[in-house]
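Comment thread on ticket #2218

A.B. wrote:
> Attaching the input chain for the structure job we discussed in standup.
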Amino acid sequence: MVVYLDVIWLLNFLVDSLLIWMTAIFLKRNIHLARILLGGLIGSLLIILSITPLATLANHPLSKIGISVIMILFAFGFKRVNYFISGLMTLYFSTFLMGGILIGIHYLLNFDIELQSAVLVNSIQGYGDPISWLFVMIGFPAAWHFSQRSTNRITVSNLVYDVLVDVDVVINDIEFSLKGLIDSGNNLYDPISKMPVMIVQASAVADQLPKEILLLASSKNDNLDAVGQIPPQWADMMRLIPATTLGQKNQLLCAFKADKMTLLENNTVKEVKKALIVFTDQELSGDQRFHCIIHPLMASDGIIQPAS
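C.D. wrote:
> Ran it. Output below, let me know if you need it in another format.
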């Protein structure tokens, strides 16, 4: 049987490039086409090494692990250890996933293939595994589709729930009602009292809040100066929350304890006994569907009351 090494190398290059692309899709990372091809090129070097005196070394498991490490480094770079390890593990997951699919297709079609002429099968095998070629031809358009149009859908599966509810708040004799998003990604809470924190878009209640609180909510102002100007009745209920959120790192957020908070969801009223509120000048929803982000514990621990 004649083996066309250049064609088999091309097949492995495309497969390795597809694996890098699949890894980027699973991790929702933006990656340039040049990096995808570079990672595939590095992975395909094992085929070249297999016809050299280093063939034994190239087939060693440690060599394959080393090549995969280099593939991830060149494709995604090294930002931190967790970033690198997640990329490497996802590459292995993509590889095993593809391998399982190929083995399944082989077993599915093997009986029919064996009924055909062995000469036909051997002539195809000289250009590489026909099932792998089929997978490449299907895989690249599928990867393009998911990376361009369906990546955001993967994010939805990572959330326990995201629900819009009506929120009524009483704080320092001020009452306001908002549409809120229960977001499982909001893990902000007071480390001392363990009270969960709700983030409120200040512009939605600007006509009800004191100007000193609006100044405190502004990201353009210095928090220390703004804190010194807030009224005493607000200062008594203020808490400082360390956080990495709202586009800033290692900051202290000024939160205020709500006097009363209720959530209305599906005709069910839940009273939240312990809740803190952080006001921000950032726009939380581009389409204005909601104006506050609710901690999931507020919804899960709320006391259910009959809806009036």
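A.B. wrote:
> Thanks. Noting for the ticket: The longest helix spans residues 81-115.
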